[in-house]
Amino acid sequence: MTTTASVQAEIERFLRSTEPEVLCITGEWGVGKTYNWQRIFDRLRSAKEIGLGRYSYVSLFGINSLEAFKQSIFENLEFILPESEAAFDRLLARGNNLFQQGKKAIGAVSAIPTVGGALDKLASPFLFSSIRTQIICVDDLERRGDGLSVKNVFGLISYLREQRDCKIVLLLNEIKLGESGTIEFNDYFEKVVETKVVFAPTATEAAGIAFSNREALSELISEYTIKLDVKNIRVLKKIERLIRLVLSGPIPKPSEKLLRQLVHSLVMLGWSRFDSGARPPSIEYLRRDSIGRTTRSEKRTPDEERWDAIRRSYEFVYLDDFDLALARFAESGILDQKLIRAEAEKQEERIRQADQTSSFANSFRKLHDSFSDNHDEVCHAIVTAFENNFDVVSLTELNQVVEVFERLGEDRLAEHVIKYAEQKAPAPFWLYEDPFHRPLSDRLAKIIEQKKSEDTPKVDFEHDLIAAAQTYDPKVIERLAARTPAEYLALFDSKEEKELRTVVLSALDYRKIANASPEMLKVVKDAEEALRMIGKRSALNAFRVNNFGVSLNSSE
Known about the structure:
It contains 28 helices and 6 strands. The protein is mainly α and 556 residues long. It folds into 4 domains: 3-201, P-loop containing nucleotide triphosphate hydrolases (Rossmann fold), CATH 3.40.50.300; 205-354, no CATH class; 363-448, no CATH class; 461-546, no CATH class. Helix 8 packs across helix 10 (233-248), helix 10 crosses helix 11 and helix 23 (461-471) packs across helix 26 (497-508). The longest helix has 26 residues, at 337-362.
């Protein structure tokens, strides 16, 4: 059996038995000692399989004296009604009611300083005398108050077992007892405790405990928490809460791919936010571009090297805008439904386009991956995919389709897809400049020449900037060098997200060329000047500009 299964089996044996004994369950904070104990206790209680009829749960958190410990055992006393004759059940039920009424009355009178103090001294021994032949769970020994020693706790536990026929389970994090507590724990442990088990579940076992409802979402959350090796039950439940809040609010019906990204991201972000004991990367660190940091050869600390290794293993290297919206929620705890919904809609569109691209590419599988006599089926698949996914088809891909149909002797279909493109494609579609200068079908070449002649009076600054970074066409670079910093500023201000990164990096691309021409250097100079103007607007923009390797001080 696994560690978790062994502990669970021991708890079940302990609860079913009537023999007085002491069981010690130790483990790190958050691994689910109390959660696991309570879950098994509730299950056996419902099944009426617990050996004794009474139970007290006591947390020693902040308890400063032995008397307070004793009083807490009585105050938390409850009856477990075992399977028995109906008359006996009724008798126990009446006894339980009397105990509850007695506790309320004593609590009310205790609020009167003089009378209450005297009553406490008189009543406490009497009330504690009722504690016998029962199960007592003593939790949080390491969090006890300064006035309560481990020695005294063990002394009372020993008395309850030997003189009152009680069964006591002790739940604690042994390594957090402190120096004096550890010494006393080791001194008296063998004299008091019969059985000790260490509760140290694996990430798989922890997920099984935290997400006992094995529905599809729980399985998906478990997949990623296991991959990240999260073992803290409290952290797992908090991560689950983050995910369910988003799904019950701004994104109630995400696509399968968006749901997977949402869970994948919030597991990492939630782990970063809640599991301080695991020393995870901060959310701020996760926001940084680790690829850029690595390629810039920045010196990293041992923690940063460990964090980057975790990010690579978990495949969480780059955060897109949807991830950043989720990071904001995980960090602040405030669910900005409008922001997350808007970014989710944008991400769904990106996913749709990616799926279309994949669908179009897959339509060629029937052409390349078979020797079957399925000419018509191949042509139909390509035409259908071409039309259904045309908004993600490029001019180069149109040319590939035309060439395939021409080689297959399907001139009619070649003409069909060209006319379809003429009707559907916007003007920029026909102006794309292939950096590899691959030959085009004669039919397409004529259309492109016509489109270019119609578009000659217009100059597309953005198109030139991106194309020049790929082709290094000197004529295009010369046109770019004639632009002003103000024009670069206007272009950068008009872009967001991936489009912004594309135009900025295209403008700065010539920095890596050792023998850059004067025109190339002019492009870089004007682009950097535009970025400096943006950076001077705010500290946030200065940070963003610096990420592109541009200092606000032009002399640097």
